[in-house]
Amino acid sequence: MNEYTxxxxxxxxxxxxxxxxxxxxxxxxxxxxxxxxxxxxxFIRQFHDAFPDFQLAVDEWMYADxxxxxxxxxxxxxxxxxxxxxxxxxxIESSGMAKVLIEGGEVQVDRLYYNxxxxxxxxxxxx
Length: 127
Description:
Order of helices and strands: HEEHEEEEH
Distance between the termini: 41 Å
Shape: globular
Structural class: alpha+beta
Helix content: 10-25%
Largest sheet: 6 strands, mixed
Radius of gyration: 14 Å
CATH topology: Nuclear Transport Factor 2, Chain: A
Strand content: 35-45%
């Protein structure tokens, strides 16, 4: 599953690690869902446009019978528009977990669990 992490870290040559019909449940996505390989490609590119130094570090993977669980931490500096918010120059750090379903060597479903409010607070304008 390291290739999937590399994809999130901007190595778009790894896009074939996800199924054409991949579904990613992510609170930052419109409607909370990204559907399809092309949409995931565009979504990850939007993250990298907004956070050019975006990095996803996987602290631990656990894998059994087509299900992978991971603990992760993401970091980045907000230098581009994100979710309608103009660049703030602020650094973000958020941790969470994900349940990834794998079939035929491809990611089919990725469900991310984290606190999106933490990221919103880190990007909020100074009071």
